[in-house]
Amino acid sequence: MYGIASMNITGDFFTYTGFRVTNGTLPWPRRNLIAIKANMEAFPALNGQSVSYTKLVFPSECVNPPHTHPRAAELLFVLNGALSVGFVDTAGKLYTQDLSAGDMFVFPKGLVHYQYNLGQSPAIALSAFGSAAPGTVNVPASVFGTGIDNVVLAKSFKTDFWTVQKLKAALTPPPK
Amino acid sequence: MYGIASMNITGDFFTYTGFRVTNGTLPWPRRNLIAIKANMEAFPALNGQSVSYTKLVFPSECVNPPHTHPRAAELLFVLNGALSVGFVDTAGKLYTQDLSAGDMFVFPKGLVHYQYNLGQSPAIALSAFGSAAPGTVNVPASVFGTGIDNVVLAKSFKTDFWTVQKLKAALTPPPK
Amino acid sequence: MYGIASMNITGDFFTYTGFRVTNGTLPWPRRNLIAIKANMEAFPALNGQSVSYTKLVFPSECVNPPHTHPRAAELLFVLNGALSVGFVDTAGKLYTQDLSAGDMFVFPKGLVHYQYNLGQSPAIALSAFGSAAPGTVNVPASVFGTGIDNVVLAKSFKTDFWTVQKLKAALTPPPK
Amino acid sequence: MYGIASMNITGDFFTYTGFRVTNGTLPWPRRNLIAIKANMEAFPALNGQSVSYTKLVFPSECVNPPHTHPRAAELLFVLNGALSVGFVDTAGKLYTQDLSAGDMFVFPKGLVHYQYNLGQSPAIALSAFGSAAPGTVNVPASVFGTGIDNVVLAKSFKTDFWTVQKLKAALTPPPK
Amino acid sequence: MYGIASMNITGDFFTYTGFRVTNGTLPWPRRNLIAIKANMEAFPALNGQSVSYTKLVFPSECVNPPHTHPRAAELLFVLNGALSVGFVDTAGKLYTQDLSAGDMFVFPKGLVHYQYNLGQSPAIALSAFGSAAPGTVNVPASVFGTGIDNVVLAKSFKTDFWTVQKLKAALTPPPK
Amino acid sequence: MYGIASMNITGDFFTYTGFRVTNGTLPWPRRNLIAIKANMEAFPALNGQSVSYTKLVFPSECVNPPHTHPRAAELLFVLNGALSVGFVDTAGKLYTQDLSAGDMFVFPKGLVHYQYNLGQSPAIALSAFGSAAPGTVNVPASVFGTGIDNVVLAKSFKTDFWTVQKLKAALTPPPK
C-alpha cells in the first residue's frame, strides 16, 4: 500500500465489474465454456494480494477439459446448476464428485482436473485461487495443439501416427 | 498429496456442503450477519492449499463491523442484493464503493474494512481469501469487548470514562 | 547484494543514526508518544532483510492506542521505565503484562495491541519487527478519523449517532 | 539443524548412493525410461533444503511423456548422449531444443514438457529441482489411465469414444 | 493463534525476562563476550513470529569473531558504549563502521561479520533478527575447532601445517 | 511466463551450454579449482525458477576452501573421480564423507563446508542449488583477504599479529 494515498486512486481501483457480462445477456443456446478471469492482468488491484477469481459458465453438456493451474489450488463454488468434477493425484488416483448449487470442491495445487455439466440447463461456478496469477495449462491443447513431434506423441500415448494426427487436427487452433 | 492414495480418501474429502444451509431456509426476518466459513478448520482438505471462502448473508440494514484478516486479502463477490463497502489504508485514507450483484471488491491484506447492506432486501456475498486460515479481528469486539483497561481506552479514543463504559456495556459478550 | 561492490557504497549505507534524536534532547514535559521508525523507507539498506526497528518514547501516562501491524509480529524491549501492554487474539481473549526495564514482550502478527506508561517518568522501548515494512493500522484513527459513515459506525459499535460524532470529533485529524 | 549434534547422526545421513545402480550394470538392451529419484522420500536429509535430483536413463528412441512437476522447475543436464526436449507455456507456445552431452535446459515451474532420445545409443541426464518434493504428473497416464469418464475425454480431446477407449486400453495400468 | 484461548495461557507466555541478568550484576572485570539469546528455543512464543533478539555485552577490547547467521539479517542497536563493526559481501568487499550508543547497523543475510569494542568501558548492544531461529556459525570455531583435516585447512588458508596446528590448538574447545 | 509468447524468444533462451568448456579441452596439468556457474546471472532463464547448477573441476589434491552459500542448500553429485567432503553444523559438529563417482551429498543451507580431491586424477562434480542466486562466501578470502583489522583477527583466532599478517599476505588478492 506504499504511496497509494499520494496517488489519485479511489475505491474504483479496488472494484471489478467484469463478471456482470454473464448476468443473463449471453446469446443462448451456445456450446462452449465461458471463462472470465478476474486475475492480476484483468484486475491490477490484485497485485500482491495472492487471490483471484474465475467465473465459469457451462452450457448443457459442456466440459472444461483436463487442465492444471501451475501456481495455485482452485476452490470451486457452484452458483447454479450441477457439475461433475474430478482430479488425479500424483499417485494416479482419480477423485470425483457430483456437485449441486451451493457445493464447493477443492482441486489441489498443480494437479490435473476437469469439470463437466451433465445437465440440460447451464451451470455457473465461481472459482477462487490462492494466487493473483494462477495460470492455466489446458492439457489437450498443450499436448496436441502446439506442434509437438508426432513420434513423441505416439510413443507417449502408446498409439499410432494416424491417431495422433487425428487428435492434432481436432485440437490445433486455426491460423490467425 | 503424499500418501493420499494409500488412505481411504474419496472425493468427499475435497467437497464442502456447509454453505447449503443458507439456501433459503433461514428464518427471516432476522437482524444479525450470518458468516459461514469454509476455512481449514471447517474443511480440512484446504490445508496447504492457501485458499478459503466465507459466505456472508446480510439482513437489511446489517453491518459487518470494521475488522481485519491478519493472514490474507479478501476478494468479495456480491451474489445477491447490494453492499456498501470500505477500507482504510495505512496512511489513513478511506476507500469506499457501492457494489451491486455481480460486482467484486478487494480488501488488501491486513487493513481495516467493513461492509453494509443499505438495502431493504438481504444481500449475500461470497468472499475468497488467499489463505486457508485468514483469521478475523473484529475491531469493536476486540477493543471494547475484551476487558482492556478504561484508562487505556479513554486515552486512545480521546474520550471520557462514561463513553468507554457505555461502549463496553454494548460490546462485551454476556458471560456464558 | 548484487553489484553493491561495483557501486560507490560504504558502511554508511548500512548505518542508521535516526534514533539519536531522542537521546535526552527532547523538550520535556510533553504528552504525546514519539515513534521513530527505522524501516525500509527511512533506512533503505533494510530492503530485503526482513527486519526493522521502531523506537517508542512514552511520556508519563501516555498510551499507544490499539493498533495492528499488517505484515509482522512486534518484539518490544523496554529500555527505560515501565509499560503495561496487552493484545487480543482472534478468539477475543485479552493477554496483558506489566513490563519493567529489561523485559520483552511479543505481539503476534496482525493482532490488536496497545502499550501504556502508567508511571510518572518517561518509558522508552525498542521494538523489532520481522519485516522491513511492517506497517501500522491505528485503530481509533482508522475507524473514527477517516470519514466512515455514521450509520456504519453506530451499528458496529452498537451505539448512537451522538457518541459516534463525539468520537469522530476527537479523532479526526485537522485539515492540513 | 536443531539438535542434529545430539542425535547419532553422521555424514552417512547426508549421503545418497542410490544413483550408483545405473553405473553400467543395467541389462541392455531395454526399452523403458529409468527414472531414479533422490527426493525427500528417498533421501530424508533433503527435508527443508529445497533441492533434489532425478537421474534419467533413456534407451534408444525412448520418450519421457509429457508431464508436469507441480512444485518446482526442472534444470536438466545431459550427461551422455543427446536429447530432444520441449515445453509448452501457458499461452500455448512450444519451445524445443536439441541437446548434446554437457548442455542444460530449464523447464519452468508447472509447465507441460517432455524429453526424447532420438539417437541409437542410450542418453543419460541429471535433473535438479528447486524443491525436495517436486512431484510428477504424467499427462497420458493421468488423463487416459485413471478412469476419467469417456464422455469427458471425448469432448475434451474433440474425438470419438472409439479413440478414447483405444487410448485408455493402451495407457491404463494392468490390475495389480 | 489457533486454540490459544482454549489453553491455560496468559500474558506470561508472551513475556521474556532473560535479559535482566545483565542489568548490572555481572562480576566485572571480565574478558569474554556475553550473548543472551531470546530466540524460539529460549522464548517459545516466538514460534512462527519471524523475529528474535540477542543481547550482547562486550567487555573492553572484546571481539565477537567473524560469524554468519544462516537464516536472517541482523539489525544491531548500540545501547551503551561504542562498537567497531564490519561485514564482507559476496564480492569480497569489506564494509566497516564505528558506532556510538544510539546507532544502528544492519548485517545483511548470510554474510560474514564481526563486532569489536575498542573502548575502555563495556559496550552493550541489542540485535534483532528477522527469524525466530537465526542460527550462528562462528567462523574460527567452525573452521579450526571442529577437526577438519590439516591438509584441507593448510591448502584453504595457503599456509603450513604448523600454523594450522597452532590455530587448532587455540580454537579447539577442551574435551568435556 | 507472462508475455514470453509475445516476445521473440525460442528454446535457445532456456538452454545453457557454458559447461561444454570443461569437456576435455582444459590445459592440464593445472592446480586451481574451476567453478563454472549456471546461475541467474549467467543463465537468465533461471530467474524465478529457484534452481541453479555449478560445475566443479578439481585437479589432483585441489581443495575448495571452507565456504557458505547464503541463499541455498547445495546438492553435490560426483561425475568423475572421488571427493572428500565435510560441513560443520551450528552446534560445531563436523560431518564428513568420502564420495565416489555417482554419489551425492547435501550441504545444508548456510553452513560452512568444503570439498577435497585426495586422488591423483581430476574429480568433476555437478552441484545443484535450490536458488537461482545461491551466492558464495569464501571463508579464508572473506576473513583474511578483505582488510579486516589485525586486532579483530588476532583476537578472533586467538593468535598473534605475526600469524594474522602471514595469513593476510597469502590470502589477499593482488591489486588489479
UniProtKB/TrEMBL annotation, chains A, B, C, D, E, F:
SUPFAM superfamilies: RmlC-like cupins. InterPro entries: Cupin_1, Germin, RmlC-like_jellyroll, RmlC_Cupin_sf. Residues 31-165 form the Cupin type-1 domain. Its main location: secreted. Oxalate binds at N64, H69, E74. Keywords: Apoplast, Glycoprotein, Manganese, Metal-binding, Secreted, Signal. It holds the Pfam family Cupin_1. Mn(2+) binds at H67, H69, E74, H113. The keyword Secreted applies. It is found in: Secreted, Extracellular space, Apoplast. GO terms for molecular function: manganese ion binding. GO terms for cellular component: apoplast. Oligomer (believed to be a pentamer but probably hexamer). Belongs to the germin family. May play a role in plant defense. Probably has no oxalate oxidase activity even if the active site is conserved. This is Germin-like protein.
